[in-house]
Amino acid sequence: MLNYFIRRLLLIIPTLFAILTINFFVVQVAPGGPVDQAIAMIEMGPQAGMTTLPGSEAIQPNSLSDNESQYRGSRGLDPQVIEQIKQQYGFDKPIWERYLETVKNFLMFDFGNSFFKNNSVIGLLWQSLPVSLSLGLWSTLIIYMISIPLGIRKAVRDGSKFDLWSSVLIIIGYAIPSFLLAILLIILFAGGSYWDIFPLKGLISANFDQLDTLGKIKDYFWHICLPTVAMVIGGFASLTMLTKNSFLDEIRKQYVVTARAKGLSERQVLYKHVFRNATLIIVSNFPVVFIGMFFTGSLLVEIIFSLNGLGLLGYEAVIQRDYPVMFGTLYIFTLIGLITSILSDLAYMFIDPRINFEAR
């Protein structure tokens, strides 16, 4: 088991390297990079009509001469200004040199600084992590607490009215997008048009530091309630049906007939024999559910409830072409996904000791 675990850990390195390499070169050929973004900021300018780049003098667009450049929207800017911008964002170096420098820094977990947020990538990730961690962990926990008992119940009562009506409700919940449900919850319960029960935005209140321990706990769950509900409703449907089908397959096998013939009760057959074998496929689906809830599933919910999580951070980085933040979030997402997959394999052995990873 130890040898398998070590091999899986070592495979993380080439996997991260391949993902980083592919995305680095794909991003380099995409239009509208950070240099183009900076040029647009200069030409459009803030209200004063002037933009100051970090480490440079104020640049007045109207005073710049008309010159050719490879960057879209750069016509009318002084070539020295373009070179200054390229140097500021590291684009004065050849692409291979930027690639090697990126790989070297990422091996040392040095993600650099954001191009546009005036903060380090590590700092931005650390600020955004609690929000995504809260949404992801609570949503995943509640989904599993609902889906597994409900799926078992549906498998035991397959074809009954309970199975039929619960399937209808599950399909309805699955068909409603999480962001649409989030808007509906705001309208109903966050002061939209009906009741003003829950807060509209944020993870904590403005006076959070002044509350006692019990007050902080209440305030936290008060804020996290609606976003979590919005993510859970659409997330438990597939896992419920997966649980039901897995238990149905096991219930129909010969060893279950033998156990019943020996006089064991249905509860003993279900939870002592069937449960262990049926939950293997559920455990294997955990990385997909966790990553989906932790990152991709929370993006629109974070935007609607004004929660500064990793999903929103990554989305803004893509829009702004903030490459350090893009690569940093991608690196962390991939690393967490790979580690979660390894933990899922370890859970196999815990559930069913017959599984032998040493033979693989």
UniProtKB/TrEMBL annotation:
Entries under InterPro entries matching the protein: MetI-like, MetI-like_sf
UniProt subcellular location: Cell inner membrane; Cell membrane
GO BP of this protein: microcin transport; transmembrane transport
Record domain ABC transmembrane type-1: where: 129-344
Domain of life: Bacteria
Gene3D superfamilies, per database record: MetI-like
GO CC annotation terms, alphabetical: plasma membrane
Main localization of the protein described in the UniProt heading: membrane
Membrane topology (UniProt): Multi-pass membrane protein
Keywords: Cell inner membrane, Cell membrane, Membrane, Transmembrane, Transmembrane helix, Transport
Regions crossing the membrane: 9-27, 133-152, 164-190, 220-243, 280-305, 325-351
Pfam families: BPD_transp_1 (PF00528)
UniProt family annotation: Belongs to the binding-protein-dependent transport system permease family.
Job description of the protein: Probably part of a binding-protein-dependent transport system. Probably responsible for the translocation of the substrate across the membrane.
Protein name: Inner membrane ABC transporter permease protein YejB
